Amino acid sequence: MKKPLAGAAFAVLLIGGAMAAPATAAGQSDAPAPAKQHTAQQKQQQKPQQKKPKAKAVDFAGTVALSNCSGSVVRVPDSKPEDPALVMSNGHCLESGFPGPGEVVVDQPSSRSFTLLDSSGGDAGTVKASKVAYATMTDTDVSLYQLTSTYADIESKYGIKALELNAAHPEQGKAITVVSGYWKKMYKCSVDGFVYNLKEGQWTWKDSVRYTPDCQTIGGTSGSPVVDDATGKVVAVNNTGNEDGQECTDNNPCEVDENGKVTVRKGINYAQETYIIVPCIGAGNKIDLGREGCTLPKP
Predict the structure, then answer these.
(1) Do 90 and 151 fall into the same domain?
(2) How would you label 197-233 residue by residue, b for 16+ Cβ within 10 Å and e otherwise?
(3) Fewer CB within a 10 Å sphere, N or C end of the chain?
(4) Burial letters for 31-51: b for 16+ Cβ neighbours within 10 Å, e otherwise?
(5) In contact, 193 and 210? CB cutoff 8 Å
(6) Over the stretch 74-100, which tens digit does the pLDDT of each residue have?
(7) Predicted pLDDT of residue 147
(8) Rounded to whole angstroms, how far apart are CA atoms 93 and 247?
(9) Residues 96 and 144 occupy one common structural domain
């Protein structure tokens, strides 16, 4: 796991992440073309095509800083303004410690506080949990805290909207941004591929997202939302990376394919897909593990 941090003093032990810069190219003709008499049909064909609206640039609005990790205020497509808001982070970021293999936490009281960030990464205010609605480190690595505030409360008080969880599986090659509320830093890269089983110490996660090398996430980025740059929706939650090149040990996850072949990628980082959460959230933002299509592990 991208180790939860006890305090900012750990920062001196960590290596900063690199940011990817898009390449651009430009070309021009050698000489202007001679003027021509255009027909009405040719003029019609030469009308500029309407451009698709550009996606809003990814920013920090809606992300949160935990005492030891990162997270975000999230909603599903059917969430209502009057629903109690949810904060998503990693299962390994729980204040009670790592859930064991096979352990699922549901409806556990919590009074944890989160620092809510605005679009520029400034501290907008504090939101507070009423409970851990769901958490596990089995098959995935996620925690969902229910807040004492509704989405409408947060938008009214801070002018901040929740990030929406994409209901579809992420796509290979898509440009993404890992947004860390703890460090107030973004890591930009692409989805390199998907891992059948990602094994780290006692835990195994299924169908994990593997980043391209540009996303050099560090301790404290655990729980950061992974945002699809094109849609602005959350497709995964950042959780781990292979630090030392070891095989399947703590902080050194390994990839295991369908045939049991093990691959180690030193310096490569990973996230857990979040589309699987969407079918498990019912009316009132209640976690309902019995809903049709819900595949999250059950207690």
Answers:
(1) yes
(2) bbbbeebbbbbbbbbbebbbbbbbbbbbbbbbeeebb
(3) C
(4) eeeeeeeeeeeeeeeeeeeee
(5) yes
(6) 999 999 999 999 999 999 999 999 999
(7) 98
(8) 23
(9) yes
**Cα distances (Å, whole numbers) of residue 94 to 112, 247, 297:** 10, 25, 17
DSSP string, 156-220: HHH--PPEEBPSS---TT-EEEEEETTTTEEEEEEEEEEEEEEEETTEEEEEEEEE-TT----TT
Q: Say how far apart CA 295 and CA 41 lie, in whole Å.
A: 55
Query: What is the spatial distance between Cα 198 and Cα 176, in angstroms, rounded to a whole number?
Result: 20
Tokens, residue 16: 């900063």
Range of the domain at 87: 63-164+280-285
Q: What is the pLDDT of residue 1?
A: 79
pLDDT at 131: 98
Instruction: Tell me: do 243 and 180 sit in the same domain.
Output: yes
Backbone angles phi, psi at 154, to 5 degrees: -65, -40
Q: Quick one: 155 and 211 in the same domain?
A: no
Q: 211 and 251 share a domain?
A: yes
The pTM of the full predicted model, rounded to 2 decimals, is 0.84
Pairing of strands 84-89, 142-150: antiparallel
Q: Which amino acid is at 285?
A: N
The span from the CA of 217 to the CA of 276, in Å, is 23
Cβ atoms within 10 Å of 25's Cβ, excluding its own: 4
Same domain, 202 and 252: yes
Over the stretch 164-193, which tens digit does the pLDDT of each residue have?
999 999 999 999 999 999 999 999 999 999
Tokens of 47: 């009308």
Domain match, 195 and 265 both:
yes
Q: Are residues 191 and 244 in the same domain?
A: yes
Per the structure, how many domains does the chain have?
2
pLDDT tens-digit readout, 30-56: 333 333 333 334 434 444 555 555 667
Q: Is pLDDT at 214 greater than 70 in this prediction? A: yes
User: Which has the closest alpha carbon to 165: 229, 224, 70, 235?
Assistant: 235
